[in-house]
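Worked example 4.2. Below are the chains of a multi-component assembly; read each line carefully before continuing.
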Amino acid sequence: MTKSELIHALAEKQSYLAHKDVELAVKSLLEAMTMALSSGERIEIRGFGSFSLNYRPPRIGRNPRTGESVDLVGKYVPHFKPGKELRERVNATLSQQ
Amino acid sequence: MALTKAVLAERLSEEIGLNKREAKELVELFFEEIRATLESAEPVKLSGFGNFDLRDKNQRPGRNPKTGQEIPITARRVVTFRPGQKLRMRVDAKSRK
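Applying the procedure described above to all two chains together yields the following structure tokens:
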């Protein structure tokens, strides 16, 4: 499922917003989530999961083409931990198959 | 303070002009649609934000860390999140400051 398919599905499942406004809403939600993570804030959605940042310490990398070593600074990367309900529902489908 | 569904609903009602109840329902619907899609074994790809993918894990030997007793970890399906380029770049840019 892509973002536009998600927008389409949501537009069909509710009655108070036009398709265009659902599109705005989805973009606004993803923007709010991106903003939170990029300002170092966690996201906690009960039953869905939580997003946090993991730290990658500085390391010496290598340019694969030239073999030259490059100093890479430490950085933060987003991390998602699925919540209980999501874990259970996804796993239940596996055992049904 | 973590970003929660309540904060997201607040933001939607300000930006899209939904009332509190409608905004709350839409936030709930957004996460439910993603969960239901993953539950049906279909990945969700939100361009710019990231991809929620599914991985099937085989059974493997495990151990109860408290008692040391060996118990198999059953086969399961898990959700993994791979942040998109835009999200990774924005998180990285902030963490450099």
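Take a moment to check your reading of the output against the notes. Chain A touches chain B through 56 residues (CB under 8 Å). The CA atoms of residues 30 and 52 of chain A lie 15 Å apart.
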